[in-house]
Design brief:
Strand content: 15-25%
Distance between the termini: 31 Å
Number of strands: 8
Radius of gyration: 17 Å
Helix content: 25-40%
Largest sheet: 8 strands, mixed
Order of helices and strands: HHEHEHEEHEHEHEE
Number of helices: 7
Oligomer: single chain
Structural class: alpha/beta
Amino acid sequence: MRLRNKPWAEELLADHPEVVVPNPEDFKGNWKAVFGNDNPLHIEVGTGKGQFVTGMALQNPDINYIGIELYDSVIVCALEKILEAKSPANLRLLKVNGADLYKYFEKNDVDRVYLNFSDPWPKIRHAKRRLTHEGFLKLYESILVDNGEIHFKTDNRGLFEYSLISMSEYGMLLKYVSLDLHANMPEDNIMTEYEQKFSAKGQPIYRLESQFNTVQQKSTSI
């Protein structure tokens, strides 16, 4: 994806530390100090323009959310969306690299990780960059609670199949698998910008929920 340069983005991000957390490494292990409560914390890695994480925060005021995005020109769009929604108190943004989560979170900091329409990195030599690669799963496990979950959506069947295999081989439990989410869409589903775009074209949306293997559960497929 080609990113348009937005020279004003850096200044706008700096003007809103109440949303874009400065020095997030200072809160590793103590995110309750940021939100002022002990509510569960869910993070979206690769939050894009912020439609999903903003919608989730508005829908679930008793859950804290953090959207993670690296590029100024993208995360500033998420900031604008959050400001339009009057800055929900349970929502923050981090302008950091998702590969560096260990710098900002420690074990038991996070209850759930969302991965939405991640870059599929289709070439075999780039497999380690996929956000559902074993290396990233290990990273998520290191910051999640023991029974923490990963919720994943994509329009890319190849990435979806890869993710199913990767999570299964890692020993994770597949709690929910859908090969066409919108054929029987949950009422509480919050769509991302990409989800709206691809579903409008009639393209199936794939979704799964997986859990690190601490309790035996039966998987569910649709």
